[in-house]
Structure to design on (948 residues):
């Protein structure tokens, strides 16, 4: 991987991934070829003749909903604000972590047609003040939107004025949907705001604390890191503003996904001296080993780590044997976010499954730190060999239906809402792997195996759905040989 | 419109894509930012009790996924090519190009692009539905208007007596639209009408829309949504319309509604009365069979009624629960943001159909800010644990927190799977009773005394 640019916390905006990481949303080939071509940034984005709805960075910036005690103001018409599902999901996660409930404090400015003509700055001011009054938050995130961006709202000016007035961080998040096809750019944007306006220089170093960047998932890392006498500092979901402000005090920064977190990990290293864990994420045996070893190296626990790894391997081996026997011969396809798809691939190969293809929703040709050890695709190819039928597209069911019909996997693993249905409608036993944490670490492997087995055993419902479903694609389209036919006009 | 909103109860005008999808084999082509279609789907369909993508919805909706270059240089040329490819890839009977905020603000003309294809005989129309134009209800109105205007078009009607077009629900902003439309169609056919129900599995799809000008009359069962379509059809085809500002729920209101409709349509009274009498016989047989339960468990059945929902449903549900099941109305919160000039009619309609509105909070309240609704209910409860709150998942949290019961009537619904549930008409009334009475067991085990175990 080529060296990436330094993080620029002095600027209000972080560049979107197309520019920063030369991310792409279209590729079709093999894992090794993709990895090789990324080394010299030879992949380009294509103008597509046809596409289906994607996801936008404005929605992903909504990860700010998950910060305990913070409020979010969406400077947008009402369609952009979606707190209902998040409100439920967050407290399900809190229960799983043994944490108290938290409320989701979201206000939309509800921009109207006249606001797009006369400007919405006054409305924004009123809404931010109202958020302060209603929620007494410790910080307020102000998310931009397509409409706010196009009419040229000066969110930066309003937020800095209100930060002075209200005496809490008022954080502008620049995440206009049209600026990026890579929806996770929006998470970068929220992280950028947190790093600029919430994280403080370390008051007191906490040598047993490990930052774990993750989504709102189950509590895998307390027991795992506990074996090394370390504490997991789960960020940023479910953490409060005070906890976020102390990320600088941790011994190191780990994460569950390079796609999610190499940006803040790099920033914490560069600006606050917190070293980034140089390892692929802890999915599958060898990557979990590497992850623990690297954390142990930084925190001076190398001997202990070797003991833990040895005893965990011993404990795991018989469980794994049983699982492998039950899954033997099953052909699996993965359809998930960039790095996480690589992580599940690694696990499936540990489980002895036949990995017949992978599609990732986008591909970063480098990561923010540019670390070779954290390059999950490179690591995957290096340790497990090439993977065929490896493609990149941002969901696009019309293509995936053809890919899956062609490959006929026994089991499909999906990580994105509304996408598992593609497999269900083709009669393929499918799991939607929403909680990433549960698959992490040694036990994650067994738990993933159990979910796959359940999907396989209950496949009759999928087969029944397939019998009665009609897809909306034309005969012409279904007769085309190349699923990626309409995505190949290169753009400048 | 108005100010800030917490806990939104509707999505934006682009939710008109769900109106398109509610017509069998009609497909939206969204010209908007990359996340818009998915957000609208997530709120309108997923948060409507997990109503799925159906035929070509959800993640399969065509979308230009507007990018920076389109915003700077205009997205129309790209849209032109895009629509051509959509027509090749997809198998649909009607394509509706919908604009979102990006295309709306940069001035791309989706209607012009649609007309280009329509001239060549393709079933393509355009609808200007940028989010800032209004909410889901407004988006529905825009889409229906454009379908009539551009797709059904200027034709000379061949009127068939007894044929009626029904405008009754915003799918799936009314989470029970599928079951409701089925029941409405059933009872209208029961009194001898032929029905173009227009949306859902009971609709024949675009052939029904083509048939729309031939109706004897249009029926609007809603305080304001649907009026625009009826007025347009009156202007274009001279079709008269009957406007009843509520969705009929339970036998009293349904019977009254059917008689009004029959009268308007000039149907012979005999068969109409026969149908109503038979429906009532069935309904009240079930109804009376609940008497044992109601009598024994009177202490456990809530009595104070709070309703949070769109005006069409809130009116009908309140009337049934108050007039026929003896609830006392305490708060009615209408969340569909009706135009101001309709609000006094809605108030009037409510007092016309509800026997006794008590001395409630100014009843009803028009409120789009969820927090304001919840604060008001909390205040009015005064610590009572005798309330039934009909509303969204947000009201479930409130009910749990205050030790009361809740039932779903409006979006967002994130903890309930809605399939053919309906509270409309006769069958819907029974279903509503079943759900209300069953809900008392959700709070814990109860006895036929005054005791409850595990009440949260
Ligand atoms: S409000 Fe505008 S930008 Fe937001 S989802 Fe609706 S159309 Fe898209």
């Amino acid at each position: 991987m080529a060296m990436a640019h330094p993080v620029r916390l002095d600027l209000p905006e972080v560049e979107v991934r197309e520019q920063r990481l030369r991310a792409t949303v279209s590729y079709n080939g093999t894992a090794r070829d993709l990895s090789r071509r990324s080394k010299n940034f030879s992949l380009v984005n294509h103008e597509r003749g046809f596409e289906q709805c994607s996801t936008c960075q404005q929605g992903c910036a909504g990860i700010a909903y998950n910060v305990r005690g913070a409020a979010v103001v969406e400077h947008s018409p009402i369609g952009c604000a979606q707190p209902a599902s998040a409100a439920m999901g967050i407290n399900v996660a809190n229960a799983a972590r043994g944490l108290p409930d938290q409320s989701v404090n979201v206000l939309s400015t509800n921009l109207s047609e006249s606001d797009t003509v006369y400007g919405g700055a006054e409305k924004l001011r009123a809404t931010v003040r109202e958020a302060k009054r209603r929620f007494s938050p410790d910080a307020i995130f102000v998310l931009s939107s397509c409409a706010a961006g196009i009419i040229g709202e000066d969110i930066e000016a309003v937020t800095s004025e209100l930060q002075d007035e209200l005496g809490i961080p008022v954080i502008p998040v620049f995440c206009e949907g049209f600026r990026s096809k890579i929806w996770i750019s929006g998470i970068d944007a929220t992280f950028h705001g947190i790093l600029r306006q919430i994280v403080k220089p370390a008051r007191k170093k906490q040598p047993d604390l490990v930052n774990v960047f993750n989504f709102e998932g189950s509590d895998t890392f307390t027991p795992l890191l506990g074996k090394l006498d370390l504490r997991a500092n789960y960020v940023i979901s479910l953490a409060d503003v005070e906890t976020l402000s102390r990320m600088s005090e941790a011994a190191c920064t780990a994460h569950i996904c390079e796609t999610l977190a190499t940006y803040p990990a790099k920033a914490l290293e560069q600006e606050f001296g917190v070293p980034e864990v140089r390892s692929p994420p802890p999915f599958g045996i060898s990557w979990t080993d590497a992850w623990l070893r690297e954390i142990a190296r930084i925190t001076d626990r190398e001997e202990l780590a070797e003991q833990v790894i040895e005893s965990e391997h011993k404990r795991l081996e018989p469980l794994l044997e049983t699982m492998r026997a039950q899954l033997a011969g099953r052909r699996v396809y993965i359809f998930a976010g960039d790095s996480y798809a690589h992580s599940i691939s690694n696990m499936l190969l540990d489980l002895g499954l036949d990995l017949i293809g992978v599609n990732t929703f986008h591909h970063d040709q480098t990561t923010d730190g540019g670390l070779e050890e954290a390059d999950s695709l490179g690591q995957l190819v290096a340790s497990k060999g090439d993977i065929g039928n490896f493609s990149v597209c941002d969901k696009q069911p019309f293509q995936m239906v053809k890919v899956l019909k062609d490959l006929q996997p026994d089991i499909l693993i999906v990580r994105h809402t509304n996408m598992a249905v593609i497999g269900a409608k083709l009669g393929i036993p499918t799991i939607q792997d929403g909680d990433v944490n549960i698959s992490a670490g040694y036990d994650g492997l067994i738990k993933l195996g159990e979910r796959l087995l359940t999907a396989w055993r209950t496949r009759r419902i999928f087969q029944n759905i397939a019998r009665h479903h009609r897809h909306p694609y034309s005969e012409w389209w279904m007769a085309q040989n190349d699923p990626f036919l309409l995505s190949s006009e290169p753009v400048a | 419109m108005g100010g800030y909103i917490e806990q939104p109860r509707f999505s934006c005008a682009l939710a008109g894509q769900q109106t398109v999808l509610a017509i069998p084999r009609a497909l939206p082509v969204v010209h908007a930012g990359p996340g818009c279609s998915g957000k609208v789907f997530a709120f309108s369909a997923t948060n409507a009790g997990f109503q799925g993508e159906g035929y070509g919805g959800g993640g399969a909706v065509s979308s230009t996924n507007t990018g920076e270059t389109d915003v700077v240089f205009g997205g129309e040329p790209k849209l032109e090519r895009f629509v051509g490819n959509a027509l090749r890839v997809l198998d649909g009977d009607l394509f509706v190009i919908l604009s979102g905020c990006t295309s709306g603000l940069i001035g791309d003309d989706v209607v012009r692009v649609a007309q280009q294809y329509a001239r060549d005989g393709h079933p393509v129309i355009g609808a200007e539905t940028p989010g800032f134009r209004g909410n889901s209800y407004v988006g529905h109105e825009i889409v229906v208007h454009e379908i009539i205007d551009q797709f059904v078009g200027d034709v000379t009607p061949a009127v068939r007596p007894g044929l009626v077009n029904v405008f009754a629900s915003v799918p799936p902003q009314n989470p029970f639209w599928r079951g409701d439309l089925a029941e409405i169609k059933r009872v209208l056919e029961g009194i001898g009408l032929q029905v173009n129900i227009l949306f859902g599995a009971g609709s024949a799809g675009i052939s029904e829309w083509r048939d729309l000008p031939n109706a004897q009359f249009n029926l609007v069962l809603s305080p304001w949504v649907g009026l625009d379509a009826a007025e347009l059809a009156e202007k274009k085809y001279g079709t008269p319309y009957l406007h009843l500002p509520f969705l009929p729920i339970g036998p009293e209101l349904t019977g009254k509604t059917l008689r009004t409709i029959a009268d308007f349509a000039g149907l012979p009274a005999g068969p109409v009365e026969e149908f109503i009498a038979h429906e009532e016989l069935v309904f009240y047989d079930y109804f009376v069979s609940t008497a044992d339960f109601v009598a024994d468990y009177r202490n456990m059945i809530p009595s104070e009624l709070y309703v949070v929902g769109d005006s069409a449903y809130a009116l009908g549900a309140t009337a049934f629960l108050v007039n026929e099941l003896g609830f006392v109305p305490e708060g009615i919160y209408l969340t569909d943001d009706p135009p101001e000039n309709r609000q006094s009619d809605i108030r009037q309609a409510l007092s016309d159909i509800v026997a006794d509105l008590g001395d409630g909070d100014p009843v009803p309240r028009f409120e789009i800010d969820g927090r304001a609704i919840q604060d008001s209910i909390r205040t009015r409860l005064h610590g009572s644990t005798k309330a039934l709150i009909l509303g969204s998942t947000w009201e479930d949290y409130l009910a749990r927190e205050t030790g009361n019961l809740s039932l779903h009537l409006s979006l967002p619904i994130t903890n309930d799977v809605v399939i053919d549930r309906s509270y409309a008409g006769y069958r819907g009334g029974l279903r509503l009773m079943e759900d209300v009475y069953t809900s008392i067991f959700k709070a814990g085990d109860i006895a036929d005394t005054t005791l409850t175990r595990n009440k949260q």
Observations:
- Chain A touches chain B through 67 residues (CB under 8 Å).
- The pocket of iron/sulfur cluster is lined by residues A 76-77, 79-80, 145-147; B 12, 14, 32-33, 36, 39-40, 100-101, 130-131 (CB under 6 Å).
